[in-house]
Amino acid sequence: MSAGRSRYDQAAKTQRITKFLVAARESAIDLNLKRFVFLRVLVSSWLTLPFCALVAGPTPAQTQERADILISGGTVVTMDSSRRIIDKGMVAIRGDRIIAVGPASELAGRFQAAQEISAANQIVLPGLVNTHNHAPMVLFRGIADDMALMDWLEKFIFPAEARNVSPEFVQAGTDLACLEMIRSGTTTYADMYYFEDKVAETTNQAGVRGVLGQTILGFPSPDSRNPEEALKYTERFIQRWRGSSLIVPAVAPHAPYTNSPETLRACKGLADKYGVPMIIHVSETRDEVRQIKAKYKTTSTQWLEKLGVLGPNVIFNHGVWLTEQDLGIIRRRGLGVTHNPESNMKLASGSAPVLRMLALGIPVGLGTDGAASNNDLDMFEAMSTAARLQKLVSGNPAALPAEKVVELATLGGARVLGLHKEIGSLETGKKADLITISTEPAHAVPMYNVYSHLVYALKGADVRLSVINGKIAMLDGVVLTLDEGKIKQKARIIQERVLSSLKSR
Ligand SMILES: [Zn+2]
User: Fold this and answer.
1) Structure confidence by residue, pLDDT tens digits, 314-350
2) What is the whole-number distance in angstroms between the Cα of residue 286 and the centre of ligand 1?
3) Cα(377)–Cα(265) distance, rounded to whole angstroms?
4) Which of 49, 87, 269, 391 has its CA 20 to 30 A from that of 480?
5) What is the 3-state secondary structure (H, E, C) of 358-411?
6) From ligand 1's centre to the CA of 191, what distance in Å?
């Protein structure tokens, strides 16, 4: 290597090093500058962001509450203690509960929901409570009409039941009944029938709320040879269903004239042991009053009082022929009465002292009774008939006004069943059981008064939406929890069996 070349190399090397050092310094300065700018931006963001938030208000994602279902735009009839009616209202649901009720304009921004349902041109109402039913009897709808209760029971219903009622029959009947109830706005019903465990399974599957009583009779019935067997069945049934979110199991001795004093005492003992209701037909007909009088020298209510089987967990069905003394006992014992105007009229049983019961503060609910004595499970008809019947028998058109009737079909019924803290009105914290009813049909236009429409103009078939325990059972007139076609087909097959069973007697 020559010296000249070496010197050149040295100079070039020095130049390269110098260049590198300058570049390095510049990039260091650049890095520092970048760091500075980055930190500056960061700090200023921290400082300015809260300020921006203060000025601009909360961002939606930060503050909106989660809801599962929002129902908005309808006329919300709350049935709360102030009987609030909210035009263009909103009901927000999360899980099985109502989390808000109010004007849609106030609540709309507060919630973010998985499902939003418009209730425009609809009434939003607490789900109807049918306090007396024999659900599977829909399969006997129209089998024998136009006769007295005792003839009807002894010549047709008891024989038809003895030959046909099985777990399969009960399941098919309960499916059909639940379908009809969902369609016509009932979200809770009280029942008494046989194989009630099957009724409970089917009702639970349909997503309907039920206070379901296993029937106990003093003679052989479709599911038990004697009352002892029926009581054992009932205890197993209660053990299975107590604590269920939809089903309240109950003990249901048929009536004071179809059960011995021992059985009636055992029934009440069982109801008290498990803290469940006892459901019983009482003073339904004059004939019953005569039978009890001949046998026990008193009225049904006073006979039950004497046996020590009355209390707040007891539900009387009908109570058509209650005396003033009976009413005093009912009030003192704190029990509720179901009023079934259509069944009472059709069987010519009489008119229950509804106005007197209400004046005394006795809880009264409305019921359809079984479809064989009605002949459908439409609570809108029950409301309309209840109002008209009291006006007719009292001679007073102001008796039992529409608002009171709507109360009997919702909160009043819930009180009779002991469920008024959970259902019967649309209030924050209560179970989400509600329906919507269209006000679009010709028979509902125009609407001046919402209670008047509910009682005198609207029909069960106008119900569009049913939500029970926070779950949608019917949406826009389509039942989601049941296979409608299959259920009707099965009912027609059973009809053939029932007809041939009656021919062969
Ligand atoms: Zn009944």
Assistant:
1) 999 999 999 999 999 999 999 999 999 999 999 999 9
2) 15
3) 32
4) 87
5) HHCCCCEEECCCCHHHCCCCCHHHHHHHHHHHHHHHHCCCCCCCHHHHHHHHHH
6) 9
CA of 371 to the centre of ligand 1 (A): 10
Per the CB < 8 A criterion, the answer to whether 474 and 466 are in contact is: yes
- Ranges 14-23, 70-79, 441-450: which has the least confidence: 14-23
Q: How distant is the alpha carbon of residue 219 from its chain centre? A: 33
- CA–CA gap between residue 360 and residue 161 (Å, rounded): 38
For helices 300-307 and 261-274, the axis angle rounded to 10 degrees is 60
136 C-alpha vs ligand 1 centroid, how far in Å? 12
**Cβ pair 140, 155 in contact under 8 A:** no
Centroid of ligand 1 to alpha carbon of 367 (angstroms): 9
Handedness of CA 250, 256, 257, 260 (dihedral sign): positive
Residue in the structure block whose two tokens are 């029938």 = 193
CB 403 within 8 A of CB 451: yes
Q: CA triplet 328, 333, 337: central angle to 5 degrees?
A: 75
Q: How far is the CA of 316 from the centre of ligand 1 (A)?
A: 10
For residue 302, how far is its CA from the centre of ligand 1 (angstroms)?
20
Q: Does residue 501 have a pLDDT over 60?
A: yes
Residue 192 Cα to ligand 1 midpoint, Å, equals 8
Neighbours of ion ligand 1 (CB under 5 A): 369
Q: Which residues contact 167 (CB under 8 A, 6 or more apart)?
A: 195, 198
Q: Distance (Å, rounded) from C-alpha 246 to C-alpha 239?
A: 15
Q: Cα of 370 to ligand 1 centre, how many Å?
A: 6
Q: How close is the Cα of 347 to the center of ligand 1, in Å? A: 12
- Cα atoms in the Cβ-side hemisphere of radius 13 Å centred on 504: 9
Tokens matching residue 191:
């029942």
Using the mean position of ligand 1's atoms as its centre, give its distance from the Cα of residue 150 in Å. Answer: 13
pLDDT band at 62 (very low <50, low <70, confident <90, very high): low
Span from the CA of 217 to the centroid of ligand 1 (angstroms): 13
Give the Cβ contact number of residue 69 at 10 Å: 22
